[in-house]
UniProtKB/TrEMBL annotation:
Reactions performed catalytically: a (3R)-hydroxyacyl-[ACP] + NADP(+) = a 3-oxoacyl-[ACP] + NADPH + H(+)
Stored Pfam families: adh_short_C2
Localization (cell): Secreted, Cell wall
Gene name of this polypeptide: fabG_13
Lineage, highest ranks first: Bacteria, Bacillati, Actinomycetota, Actinomycetes, Mycobacteriales
Family: Belongs to the short-chain dehydrogenases/reductases (SDR) family.
The keyword Oxidoreductase appears for this protein: yes
Gene3D superfamilies in UniProt: NAD(P)-binding Rossmann-like Domain
BP terms from Gene Ontology: monocarboxylic acid metabolic process
Protein name: 3-oxoacyl-[acyl-carrier-protein] reductase MabA
Segments forming domain Ketoreductase: 4-171
Record keywords: Cell wall, Oxidoreductase, Secreted
Length: 237
């Protein structure tokens, strides 16, 4: 058990919600930052990760309630399917803003607590699409690839301060995001058809990602930093 305080952005749905559940079971005090958080969860705060003031205000409230934040999981994200020639710069900017700048703002907001504590764990949820690229998802893949690069650079910079920084790129996890894409016919087949091409022969679950995150934020993972730990059922190797 631990009394450490964690923040999970995007913790109201899908993978983020699975991470919140797991970290709470592991004994962390876990607060959620999300666009539409549950009204019944006392530790859920509304904040858009692209909005510096909203993040700062939520982080201050969380710190006052739960103490210094030494674990951050950047899970908030949004995808966009659009042929590149039809992608407007405004759409490109919005996807970069949520998926990349959201990570920048999240880390900036909690880093003083981690530096003060001389201990911290940051896990960035990127995407398996970064392994090989993905047609019609240029902005999203560019942003998530940048998150992987940011992860490696921060690991080198923050390692001497006792802070590890790793990324988990999920592949094909059964969440509202994946179901929405299936409904719109954007997956190039149904989820069941994809399962037949997935080496472990099942779709991933938020708990699969949560298990990897739980390890990376644990004391046991203190010698692991700057790593990109794919959790994708063998779809990407
Ligand atoms: P999800 O069910 O849609 O959850 C994403 C959460 O992030 C939602 O609660 C969403 O709020 C929130 N969010 C979006 N934009 C935000 C913003 N600007 N500020 C704060 N919160 C915001 O999707 P998921 O599948 O669990 O995805 C979680 C993460 O995994 C994302 O970063 C995604 O890119 C990544 N990922 C998922 C898969 C997969 O197979 N599912 C694969 C690769 C990567 P709203 O619902 O209100 O918009």
């Amino acid at each position: 058990m631990t009394d450490k305080t964690a923040i999970v952005t995007g913790g109201a749905s899908g993978i983020g919600a699975g991470i919140v559940e797991r970290l709470r079971a592991d004994g962390f005090n876990v607060a959620i930052l999300d666009l539409n958080p549950s009204e019944t969860d006392d530790l859920a705060y509304r904040a858009d990760v692209t909005n510096v003031e909203e993040i700062a205000s939520a982080v201050t409230s969380i710190r006052n309630k739960l103490g210094p934040i030494t674990v951050l999981v950047n899970g908030a994200g949004m995808e966009k399917y659009r042929r590149f020639r039809n992608l407007s710069f405004e759409e490109w900017e919005r996807i970069i803003d949520i998926n990349l700048h959201g990570v920048f703002h999240g880390v900036q907001a909690v880093l003083p607590d981690m530096l003060e504590a001389g201990w911290g764990r940051i896990v960035n949820i990127s995407s398996s699409s970064t392994h090989s690229g993905q047609p019609f998802m240029a902005a999203y893949v560019a942003a998530k690839s940048a998150v992987n690069g940011l992860t490696k650079s921060l690991a080198l910079e923050l390692g001497p301060h006792g802070i590890t920084v790793n990324a988990v790129p999920p592949g094909f996890i059964d969440t509202p995001m994946l179901r929405r894409s299936e409904e719109k016919g954007l997956l190039g087949g149904t989820i069941d058809e994809h399962v037949e091409r997935t080496p472990v022969r099942r779709v991933g679950k938020p708990a699969d990602i949560a298990a990897a995150v739980a390890f990376l934020v644990s004391e046991d993972a203190g010698y692991i930093t700057g790593q990109i730990l794919g959790v994708n059922g063998g779809r990407n190797t």
